[in-house]
Amino acid sequence: MLSVHRIQNRDYLINLAKEDYYEIGGEPPGKWHGNGANFLGLTHQVHRDELHNLMDGYHPLVPGKKLVQNAGKLNREIGWDFTFSVPKSVSVVWSQAKPSTRKVIELIHESAVRKTLTFLEENTLVSIV
């Protein structure tokens, strides 16, 4: 299932990694994905300062380099959160599974999310490349 929400807090996505996810200690760190990320040189784990720069309209790796006309403005749209959730039955299986099975479920979910994001980027979203 996909839910989409407007991001209103720059720290929202970073703070998710601090929340307990079931009983094993939080969301995994974010990973950059897509042509836009590759174009900007973002091929690693998401870091707070880079994400904040991008949300503020600046290049994440080149301090002060504007990517948009309204960079740094307080009233700018900072982003949208696309949350991909597995069906409840998969969550239940994951919660009762041994660690090796949990890892397989997580890898399958991550692969499905990446394929979906690529499909969205290629067919519906505007790309900077």
Describe the 3D structure.
With 129 residues, the chain is mainly alpha-helical. It has one domain (2-123). 40% of the residues lie in helices and 8% in strands. It has helices at residues 12-16, 35-39, 48-55, 88-96, 99-123; strands at 2-6, 80-84. It has a two-stranded antiparallel sheet. The mean pLDDT is 85.
In short:
This protein is mainly alpha-helical and 129 residues long. Helices cover 40% and strands 8% of the residues. It has a two-stranded antiparallel ribbon with strand order 1-2.
What are the defining features of this structure?
2 strands; 40% helix; elongated; two-stranded antiparallel ribbon; mainly alpha; 129 residues; 5 helices
What structural class is derived from the secondary structure elements?
mainly alpha
Number of helices: 5
Indicate the overall shape.
elongated
The secondary-structure element order is EHHHEHH
Q: Tell how many strands the DSSP assignment holds.
A: 2
Helical amount among residues, as a percent range? 40-55%
